[in-house]
Design goal:
This protein has 234 residues and is an alpha/beta fold. Helices cover 44% and strands 11% of the residues.
Length: 234
């Protein structure tokens, strides 16, 4: 039901967000960074190589992209590629990281209504916090879980399980907002009650495993705000 949000969130206690492509418009920056990092090795990285793997930890993503292109790199080479990608991303994100319109207001609305807000990203901790600072979102998440905080990344459930634990809530009292198949699978595997996908970087056909799909972050803000406006007094 793309574009419509029917979930009633009166019983929910936390909303968990992916970062890139959900709260920040940084997927194009990741793509350019991967392209530049792989270029010296003769690997041509295309958009879907990155977007369909969004949420994976960096070394796993680098290995999968290389193998899909028919290349096998040593652990040392993969480490160099990942480190270079991280340097390029951090440099570019410092000037290009921005929040989607309405994200700050949505996070503030959720917190004002007593819900915990969590960020669950596969990015490195230092990188994630730089992006949040540059995008003006620092301090708007009660919990931040990065790729440094779990041994396994998405689609494994560990990132979302870690965030739920840190929020101190039950998984059935959580909504997850994602934008990629691996993130949706991670949230589903963690057993959260409801997953909303935002088609900011991939079309709705790629997001069918979510419970609901909206076509913009602005729509997400509107549907959550309407549910709170309709909440009966307690």
């Amino acid at each position: 039901m793309a574009g419509h949000c029917t979930v009633f969130i009166t019983r929910y206690r936390a909303v968990l967000f992916d970062m890139d492509g959900v709260v920040t418009d940084t997927m194009p920056v990741h793509l350019r960074a991967w392209q530049e990092a792989f270029r010296p090795y003769g690997v041509d990285v295309e958009k879907m190589d990155v977007y369909l793997r969004e949420g994976m930890q960096s070394k796993a993503m680098a290995r999968e992209i290389a193998r899909e292109k028919g290349r096998e790199f040593s652990e040392g080479e993969l480490k160099k590629i990942v480190e270079e990608k991280g340097r390029i991303f951090d440099r570019e994100a410092a000037g290009h990281a921005r929040a989607y319109d309405g994200v700050a207001a949505t996070l503030t609305m959720l917190r004002n209504n007593g819900l915990k807000t969590a960020l669950v990203t596969g990015s490195r901790s230092a990188s994630a916090h730089k992006v949040l600072q540059a995008a003006g979102l620092a301090g708007l998440f009660d919990v931040v879980v990065t790729g440094d905080d779990t041994e396994k990344g998405k689609p494994d459930p560990d990132p979302y399980l870690k965030a739920i634990e840190k929020c101190g809530v039950d998984r059935l009292n959580c909504i997850v907002v994602e934008n990629a198949p691996l993130g949706i699978r991670s949230a589903k595997a963690a057993g959260v009650d409801y997953v909303i996908a935002v088609s900011t970087s991939l079309g709705a056909d790629y997001l069918k495993e979510a419970d609901e799909v909206v076509d913009s972050v602005a729509k997400l803000e509107q549907c959550l705000a309407m549910r709170f406006a309709a909440r009966p007094a307690t």
